[in-house]
Design a protein that fits this description.
Number of domains: 2
Oligomer: single chain
Order of helices and strands: EEEHEHEHEHEEEEEEEHEHEHEHEH
Largest sheet: 7 strands, parallel
Strand order of the largest sheet: 7-11-6-1-4-5-12
Distance between the termini: 55 Å
Radius of gyration: 21 Å
GO molecular function: electron transfer activity; flavin adenine dinucleotide binding
Shape: globular
Bound molecules: flavin-adenine dinucleotide
Protein name: Electron transfer flavoprotein subunit alpha
Pfam families: ETF, ETF_alpha
Strand content: 25-35%
Keywords: Electron transport, FAD, Flavoprotein, Transport
Family: Belongs to the ETF alpha-subunit/FixB family.
CATH architecture of the largest domain: 3-Layer(aba) Sandwich
Number of helices: 9
Number of strands: 17
């Protein structure tokens, strides 16, 4: 029987996040002949984004646009998804493994009595029709492969792991505006206080420059910020640096912080504790700068520079500025 799969769009600052196009790609990989893959856009004042989403090779793009959906609230967003699927039970819904997706996917799974596989980094067809989902466990030390026994499926995809689907203007999905009957909500969002700056989102950055306790001060992060600026990357940190007050906890990478999987991760003055590695070991290329040649970070690094970060980082900035000028 053919399946109806949906992908819930992740928005940030009024724009579609890259993880949305990655989740579409995943849903398309999981679909077979005769299956449909459609997107669900939820928010306020978002109709303009629908035509952009329509270029991703989808069957339909459903838009649930209502002032009450401006800020994320689980009950409201679940109601919006219910407005799209109506009385039928969805066969599968894909989400980004983001703050919203991590909250909404299990809620939807509980509502439709389905299974949830979260933090997926890869999926494949095992040849007998089963879609096998891979997810890291034990802070990235091992991977488990899971299949759904039965539907409906609820899946969250870790950003930066599944290649994003490219927009193709020749593919135009049908746009469907969906009425939203606002439920009486138990939660009211009074204010959204943004802690992180408007710079590149750490979890989606292609290049991450991270500082550890070796950075030594708030000002010690400046050379890292300058290098990130040149490389178009984002700045992250170890918990050591956050605990020392050198930077905000919003930058923390690791087991109890964010998980990043950039193309290039540059660890500056970070020893490489297992809890830190849990958040960055999936990076494509790891470069470590540390003055201790025995630092454990060198065991996971593709390139290691034994030296003082305050000498090495400005030199990297200078050289990359020349190359990228
Ligand atoms: P340190 O271990 O102190 O290392 C500093 C490094 O800087 C050293 O290797 C030193 O050689 C080098 N250095 C010093 N000066 C220079 C210089 N001028 N140039 C170059 N190198 C220099 N940690 C995380 O990062 N993320 C987490 O999510 C996290 N979660 C945790 C959860 C739990 C339950 C626990 C118990 C711990 C957790 N930790 C986490 C903490 C973790 O165990 C380490 O303590 C922490 O990662 C160490 O941070 P660091 O590498 O910056 O500091």
């Amino acid at each position: 029987m053919s399946k109806s799969l949906y992908v819930v769009a992740d928005l940030r600052n009024g724009a579609l996040r890259q993880v949305f196009s990655e989740a579409i790609h995943a849903a398309q990989q999981a679909s077979g002949d005769g299956d449909t893959v459609s997107a669900i856009l939820i928010g306020s004042g978002i109709t303009g984004l629908a035509s952009q989403a329509a270029k991703y090779g989808l069957d339909k793009v459903y838009v649930v646009d209502h002032p009450e959906l401006k800020d994320y609230r689980p009950q409201a967003y679940l109601t919006a998804i219910k407005s799209v699927v109506g009385d039928s039970v969805p066969d599968g819904i894909f989400f980004g493994h983001t703050a919203i997706g991590r909250d909404l996917a299990p809620l939807a799974a509980a509502y439709w009595n389905g299974g949830a596989i979260t933090d997926v980094i890869a999926l494949e067809n095992d040849g007998s029709g089963n879609i096998v989902f891979t997810r890291p466990i034990y802070a990235g030390k091992a991977f488990e492969k899971k299949v759904f026994n039965s539907g409906p499926w609820f899946v969250t995809l870790r950003p930066n792991n599944i290649p994003a689907i490219a927009a193709d203007a020749s593919k135009q999905a049908e746009l469907v505006e969906v009425d939203y009957a606002a439920p009486s909500l138990r939660v009211i969002v009074k204010e959204v206080v943004k802690k992180a700056s408007g710079k590149i989102d750490l979890s989606e950055a292609k290049v991450v420059i991270s500082g550890g306790r070796g950075v030594k001060s708030v000002d010690g992060f400046k050379p890292l910020e300058e290098l990130a600026e040149v490389l178009g990357g984002a700045v992250g940190a170890s918990r050591g640096a956050c605990d020392a007050g050198y930077c905000d906890y919003a930058l923390q990478i690791g087991q109890t912080g964010k998980v990043v999987t950039p193309e290039i991760y540059i660890a500056c003055g970070i020893s490489g504790a297992i809890q830190h590695l849990a958040g960055m070991s999936g990076s494509r290329v790891i470069i470590a700068i540390n003055k201790d040649p025995e630092a454990p970070i060198f065991k996971v690094a593709d390139y290691g520079i034994v030296g003082d970060l305050f000498e090495v980082v400005p030199l990297l900035k200078e050289e990359f500025s020349k190359i990228l000028a």
